[in-house]
């Protein structure tokens, strides 16, 4: 064979080899609803994954929060859903009940996912009758941020920089009101039509040991404990410990601008507070006010939408991404979220992050309010009733009765 023919033959072989390698690359369509800082951190995760996996390309489609679940459900039902998608854990049962996502027990095992490495409390939210339907990425509960200068003024700051809470939480706020220069002892999301109220109520209700609001399509709310939780919140507002009617970012800015001594909100705001120049703050899990440490929280998870035509390679590639994202949960923790995997919490990269270790144990206290397709409607019923209490239109007892009737109407449809 001449040298020229030999070169041509080698080129042909190399081109064929390269084409074959390119043909083996799997494209994974990934939908999420992240915005702001969360979107930036997720884009970083996807970019690093793609760089580390020559044979998998994850393509991101980002949808607005308000339209996300409607579009995800519609697209999946019509056979045009993504290969992998974000779902809040409180939506997982709803999606599974409607046949829109698939069980991951066997698929996850085939992709090398070890479920025992995940925080058992977080993972429990993704389980339905023994089947795992989602790969948990994080949990994001309510936590309490505090301004160290205001606490020091009221002699409520310990030597290690943590709050002194020797008495009740109400007494702690009362001392901040009387002995610090803060305009408000606390701020939280109190816009009447928003669910910030519900999140605090749910936390208190579960700290009291309240039963599930709904069990197998039956109303099972503990009305006495529901009332007690509302009355506690009412005292917070009556004592002017926290302002009413504040929009979400308004209440955050009260803390950032050093007008409020404490801020009760989700871990996702950590990055924003870190970037606030001159703000000397700390953070801790939501205080235990009643019988246990329960707290409202949700979780971002990764689910595999149902597909009419099953592509096992795409499914495996999608779960390879899910595994990698959770294995490297310290990247997502930059957004403030608590990683889902216990193994990540032991990584030096995570442990060296400021603030995260101060609230990481809150993952064990989260109580999810999953009630299938009723979850978010139940939140709306409770929020509406709570708003009427703060407006002095009805009593706590009447609010619970009104919310109960609304929930029963939902269940009867």
Protein described:
- This protein has 413 residues and is of the alpha+beta class.
- 47% of the residues lie in helices and 14% in strands.
- It is built from 19 helices and 15 strands.
- A hairpin with a 2-residue loop joins strand 4 (127-128) and strand 5 (131-132).
- Helix 9 crosses helix 10 (223-238), helix 10 crosses helix 19 and helix 18 (375-390) packs antiparallel against helix 19 (396-412).
- The protein is globular, with a radius of gyration of 24 Å.
- The N and C termini lie far apart (80 Å).
Integer-rounded radius of gyration: 24 Å
Query: Which oligomeric state applies?
Result: single chain
Choose one word for the global shape: globular
Beta percentage is: 5-15%
Q: Which structural class fits the helix and strand makeup?
A: alpha+beta
On the 0 to 100 scale, the average pLDDT is: 93
Total strand segments: 15
Q: Outline the biggest β-sheet.
A: 6 strands, mixed
Question: Can you give the helix content as a percent range?
Answer: 40-55%
Could you name the ranges where pLDDT drops below 50 across 5 or more consecutive residues? 3-22
Per DSSP, the total helix count is: 19
Roughly how many Å apart are the termini? 80 Å
């Amino acid at each position: 064979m001449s040298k020229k023919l030999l070169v041509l033959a080698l080129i042909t072989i190399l081109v064929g080899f390269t084409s074959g390698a390119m043909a083996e690359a799997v494209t994974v369509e990934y939908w999420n609803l992240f915005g702001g800082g969360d979107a930036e951190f997720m884009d970083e995760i996807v970019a690093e994954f793609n760089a580390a996996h020559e044979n998998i390309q994850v393509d991101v489609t980002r949808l607005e929060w308000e339209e996300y679940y409607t579009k995800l459900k519609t697209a999946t039902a019509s056979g045009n859903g993504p290969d992998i998608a974000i779902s809040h854990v409180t939506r997982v049962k709803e999606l599974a009940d409607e046949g829109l996502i698939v069980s991951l027990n066997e698929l996850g095992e085939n992709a090398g996912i070890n479920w025992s490495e995940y925080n058992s409390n977080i993972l429990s939210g993704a389980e339905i009758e023994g089947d795992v339907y989602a790969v948990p990425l994080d949990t994001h509960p309510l936590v309490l941020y505090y301004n160290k200068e205001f606490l020091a003024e009221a002699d409520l700051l310990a030597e290690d920089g943590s709050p002194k809470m020797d008495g009740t939480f109400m007494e702690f706020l009362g001392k901040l009101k009387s002995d610090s220069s803060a305009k408000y002892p606390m701020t939280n999301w109190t816009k009447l039509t928003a669910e910030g109220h519900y999140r605090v109520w749910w936390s208190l209700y579960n700290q009291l040991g309240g039963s599930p609001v709904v069990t197998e399509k039956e109303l099972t709310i503990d009305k006495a404990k529901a009332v007690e939780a509302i009355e506690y919140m009412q005292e917070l507002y009556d004592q002017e410990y926290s302002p009413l009617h504040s929009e979400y970012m308004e209440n955050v800015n009260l803390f950032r601008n050093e007008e409020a001594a404490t801020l009760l909100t989700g871990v996702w705001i950590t990055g924003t507070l870190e970037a606030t120049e001159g703000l000397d703050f700390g953070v801790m899990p939501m205080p235990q006010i009643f019988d246990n440490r329960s707290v409202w929280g949700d979780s971002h998870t990764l689910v595999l939408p149902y597909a009419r035509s099953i592509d096992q390679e795409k499914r495996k590639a999608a779960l390879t991404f899910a595994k990698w994202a959770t294995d490297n949960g310290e990247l997502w923790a930059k957004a403030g979220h608590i990683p889902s995997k216990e193994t990540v919490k032991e990584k030096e990269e995570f442990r060296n992050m400021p603030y995260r270790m101060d609230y990481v144990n809150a993952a064990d206290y989260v109580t999810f309010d999953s009630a299938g397709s009723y979850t978010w409607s139940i939140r709306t019923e409770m929020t509406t009733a709570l708003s009427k209490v703060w407006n002095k239109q009805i009593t706590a007892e009447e609010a619970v009765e009104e919310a109960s009737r609304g929930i029963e109407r939902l269940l009867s449809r």
